[in-house]
Amino acid sequence: MTAIPQKKFRGNSISRLAEAAIHLITGSIALLCIIPFIFIVIIAFSSAESLRTVGYTFFPTEWTTASFQAAFDMGGQLWRSFYNSVVVTVVGTFLSVLITIMYSYGLSRTDYPLRKFFAFFVFFTMVFGGGLVPTVFVIRNVLGLSNSLAALIVPALIIPFHVIIMRTFFKTSVPESLIESARLDGAGEFRTLFSIVVPIAKPGIATVALLTAINYWNDWFLALLFIRDRDFFPLQYLLMEMQQNIEFLRRNLAMIGASNINFADLPGEGLRMALCVIIVLPIAFAYPFFQRYIISGLTVGAVKE
Amino acid sequence: MRLFLTRNKKTLAITMMMLPGAIWLLLLRYLPMGGAVIAFQDYRPHPPNPTLLNNILNSNFVGFDNFRFIFATDRAWIMIRNTLAYNAVFIVLTTVFAIAVAICLSELRSKFFAKLYQTLMFYPFFISWVVAGYFVFAFLDPTFGMLSHVRDWYFDPTGWPTILTSAHLWKSLGFNTVIYLAAITSIDHGMYEAAAIDGASKWRQVWAITIPSIRPMIIILFILAVGRIFNADFGLFWNIPQNMGPLQNVTEVIDTYVYRVMQANIAGAMGMATAAGLFQNVIGFICIMGANALVRKFDNENALF
Amino acid sequence: MKKRFLLVFAILVATLIFATACGNNDDTTEVTIWFMGASVADDSDVVEAANARLAELGVPVTINPVWTGGWAMGDPAQIALDTGDSSVDIFWTGSWGLDFWMNARVGNFIRLDNPDNNLLHQYGQEVRAAVPNALWNAFTTDGPSGFGIYGIPGYKDYAQMYAWDVNNTRLAELGFNFDDLFDANGINYDVLFDPQFEAALAAAKAAWGDTFFPLAIEPELFARALSNADFDLTGLHAFHFGFDPANPAQPVNPTIGLYLENERFVAVIERLHHFWNQGFIDPRMAIPGEASTVLVETRNAGEYLFSQTVYAYGFSSSMVAERGIDVRFPAISRPIVSSVSAAGSGFAISVYSQNQEAAMQLMNAWYTDTQLAVILSEGVEGTHWQRDSNGLISLINEGRANFSPWRFGMGNIFVLEPRDTDGIGYFERFQAYNAAGVGTSILGFTFNSENVSTEMAALTGVVDQFHQSLTVGALDPSVAIPEYLAALRANGIDTVMAELNSQLQAFYAAR
Questions:
Q1: Domains of chain A with bracketed CATH
Q2: A122 vs B25: CB contact, 8 Å cut-off?
Q3: Nearest CA to CA, how far is C216 from chain B (Å)?
Q4: Is pLDDT larger for residue C346 or for residue A272?
Q5: Structural domains in chain B (count)
């Protein structure tokens, strides 16, 4: 960069006052968004006694790490589930983004004659489906997926929403002239896609990858449908199972009869919150990795540095 | 076919790219679609060989009987009204807020703070509605709640539209912001530079460059959101009001009603749930076609298909 | 570039192959059984021991237990049945959780005494004899293969009794005498209306302050005590079977009405509303998402004066130990045997199972062989439990941390051996308690909602709107009851009630 655009960069950035206002507004919104998480952390560190006597609060009467100890006491199952979640998320995101990129690239090419057909082909599945029963049946009985990590990956490989978002990114950020010139240079379609289009569309791809990763990490429903063996439980399902147990008991306590349940076996609020924290942290730490491509592409004052 | 293949290598290459996605869609989305027929059936297993196909072939058709329950309740109007009204408000507010925040973040001089705010805003997306429910309860708890003195929250529906709308915004803002932010990142920076040289103010640049550049994304997200206007966010409407009966007037939506029915172990509930899903899909399809037609009229280039 | 593309495809293909390879490999003699309500982290020792025992017995079956879902297994299990999952052979089922009657009628469970293929006769004669007829009757229903037995009853505490749960430690602190209020051997239904009862609540409120709620109300328990557990036959929580808690067998052949129109029930609601207004009841109890947590926690902490419970045999001693206070359980009703309590727990063989005969053989062995039953309920000797000097089972806590299934809910508990905490002769005493149970006058009746499923669906919303708040006393009955009734009528309660009564009349006629 020469000195001249550097000068313009100052000229084209917002005023100090405006910036302060933006800091104030976006900063407060960010704070509002993070407070509930802080709250969850506080509950995870609150003693059961405190939860019972003063309820959920930012200011518990007594602090404890018992909930986290209880979580780690789950030992093997916790780590096993953690491992499952990581594998599913990493492999799933890679495959999913790859397929999504290839599919949406075709959709974004105005010179591709089948794009209208394939666009409708993916869009239609957004609004219509066979419903739960036939879908599960096909995945389990036709594809033979159950009780395996593949059963947690394959059914979520394509999210039509992501395909359409990705297509829009390609359309808006990749000039057709660039693809045309690559073609004139004799590059094949795959080469054009992976060495020219993909680098330009990084912010969009990072966004879709982020959303996909979160989708895999947060999923528990596929586990509910396809996993019977605890060895394949993802972390979210472990938490979900606890929560559903409690929810179930809430609905049916009077019918079961309190005597039938050993309440000591039921996880307290603290343990559930501790698990929430354990679940959120890894993906939250992975977040900046994706964000690097989303935000760093932003140029301050709209001039590339 | 042969002519088509040999004549157009480029088309073939792109079609090859789309193939993995297309096969997935065919197997996991289109194949099960035939099963939607059980919405019109009294679906039952038919031994000795109770496969899905066999069951469908042998189950009786009952016309639209499975759909009746949606309109049989005297609150059908209330839940449809709530579903539509909340979704309409959500679409407008989320879009406006997300774009505003994305633009604000893109203008911040300090990338560190832009990243920080953006990361924090994404946290709510990691937190399940069940857990978010605990957080809301911490404020509204009639005994220990921080806002319990304001009013009897769980018996007074007045505040709930605001609570639910805020909760939705809180959870979806980060998600939508990141998409718009990535779209803004992809804008060609030369355009701002040129505008600045021409003396355009920052405000003017936003309106003349940023908004038009991300317009395709706004339109696509809008069309997709409209397609789901009949599908309420179940987790939000179930977990935040905690299934509190006296609030039903402002909290009952189609999805919570269907869930109630599913929980009640009523004979034929599966057919009913499939029917309800199909009903929502058909309405969504009509809405999406309408929205798309509208967009095509004014802006053919950015229509969905 | 082409190479990279090939690589991508190779990965995809590999994934698919991997996926297929990871599918279930069903062994023909392996029977998968979905248990519930258990905290089991590691069952490998138990499965090994159980399979060894099965081999010893000469039963050509191995067991593959599924514990997924815990107490809430009903939802995933229902989805498994609805989607035709053939990998599970036997499902736990009951009047709560995975609904027995609905699934049996739809055809998700096979008829065990099917004249064309009588599994019960071929492989299950011992289990048929081991479980009393009253229980088999609750699992007899009208399904696609005709009127017959569609499930194997859990043989357990099938008589249900509603009782007060009195924190006598606190009651004594307040200077009240338990025996002045309650009759330890009688039916204490009317205590709710005793001025002394209210005086005790007021004293507790005065003594322990604003955030102490002396009446930890179990929502709808009075409605159940008045209508017996058959209150839940329809799942709607709206019907009343004209029933006297002190004498469940009366009246004979009642017709069904709405509990909201029953004077005794309205009196309960009015009384509770009166207590609610005085702050005796925790306001969180009106919130369905919070009520049970609050109830359980306040009771476990002993932070209450009076509560209610569904009493089970041997409950009091364990509660005293767990809460560290003097807990008493004076009866609200007699032990009642109803269709719902009899069908409280059982097992059924899936129509999708490929191993139906083996499944029946497994059930037969499990219900009748003490060694096998003990392995599946208590674990392996030496790892999960050991024998004390009296020869009773004494649990080993470290082992049980990984394996503590629901002991008294599954299978035949009367082939188990007593624990040291139960004492010698425990199961004989337990049998006596069951025998003292009085059958309700509609015992054996079950409701088929097929003809009124639309109305039932519409009514679930109405019930959810009023039921919880009303039954904990949060709503003013003079306003809420007429509103509730009007809403029920507007959504077709009369149609459902007419259907119920006509099915009930047919049931009486057949009896």
A1: 75-302 (1.10.3720.10)
A2: yes
A3: 14
A4: C346
A5: 2
Nearest to A244 among C75, C299, C309 (CB): C75
Mean pLDDT calculated for residue range C197-214: 93
Best of A255, A262, A263 to mutate (most C CBs within 10 Å, chain C): A255
User: Are B244 and B298 part of one and the same domain?
Assistant: yes
Nearest one of C406, C466, C417 to C34, comparing CA atoms: C406
Q: Rounded CA gap, C409 and C156, in Å?
A: 7
Give yes or no for B58 touching C (CB within 8 A): no
Of the pLDDT bands very low, low, confident and very high (cuts 50, 70, 90), residue A298 is low
Give the pLDDT mean for B263-284.
Answer: 86
Tell me if ipTM is over 0.85.
yes
Residues B230 and B288 in one domain: yes
Instruction: Name the residue facing B13 among A190, A273, A299 (closest C-beta).
Output: A190
**pLDDT by residue (tens digit) across A3-34?**
334 434 445 677 888 889 999 999 999 999 99
Contact C41 A230 (CB under 8 A): yes
A126 vs B224: CB contact, 8 Å cut-off? Answer: yes
**B69 contacts C458? CB cut-off 8 A:** yes
Q: Do C79 and A225 touch (CB under 8 A)?
A: yes
Please tell me whether residues B120 and B159 are part of one structural domain.
yes
Are A239 and A276 in contact by the 8 Å Cβ rule? The answer is: yes
Distance (Å, whole) CA A50 – CA A61: 5
Q: Mean pLDDT across chain C, nearest whole number?
A: 85
With 90 as the cut, is the pLDDT of residue B133 above it? Answer: no
Helices (H), A55-200: 66-73, 76-108, 115-127, 132-137, 150-153, 160-173, 176-184, 189-191, 198-200
pLDDT digits over C264-297, tens only? 889 999 999 999 999 999 999 999 878 877 887 7
Distance of CA A224 to the CA centre of its chain: 18
Chain B residues close to C456, C-beta within 8 Å: 264, 266
CB crowding C338-349: b at 16 or more within 10 Å, else e: bbbbbbbbbbbb
- pLDDT on residue A128: 85
Nearest-CA distance from B176 to chain C in Å? 30
Shortest distance, CA A231 to any CA of chain B (angstroms): 24
Considering the domain architecture, whether residues B14 and B102 belong to the same structural domain is answered as: no
With CB atoms and an 8 Å threshold, state whether C84 touches B45.
Answer: yes
Taking residue B214's Cβ as centre, other Cβ atoms within 10 Å add up to 24
B173 and B297 share a domain?
A: yes
* Confidence grade of residue C371 (pLDDT, cut at 50, 70, 90): very high
Inter-chain contact B115–A291, Cβ cutoff 8 Å? yes
For residue A113, pLDDT over 60 is answered with yes
Give A258 to chain C, closest Cα distance, Å: 7
Same domain, B55 and B72: no
C69, C300, C301: residue with CB nearest A241:
C69
- Amino acid occupying residue A273: M
Residue C249 confidence (pLDDT): 75
Q: Please indicate, yes or no, whether residues B36 and B114 belong to a single structural domain of this protein.
A: no
Predicted confidence (pLDDT) per residue in B61-95, tens digit:
999 999 999 998 988 999 999 999 999 999 999 99
Question: How many Cβ pairs within 8 Å bridge chains A and C?
Answer: 171
Q: What does the block give as tokens for A138?
A: 């096909």
pLDDT of residue A256: 58
* CATH class of the domain at C30-156+342-431: alpha beta
For chain A, the chains sharing at least 3 beta-carbon pairs closer than 8 angstroms are B, C
- Rounded mean pLDDT of A280-299? 79
The span from the CA of C331 to the CA of C304, in Å, is 18
Cα dihedral A243, A248, A250, A255, rounded to 10, equals -160
Please tell me what DSSP assigns to residue A234: -
Structural domain of B11: 2-63
Is B296 found in the same domain as B182? yes
User: Closest approach of chain C CAs to the CA of A150, in angstroms?
Assistant: 5
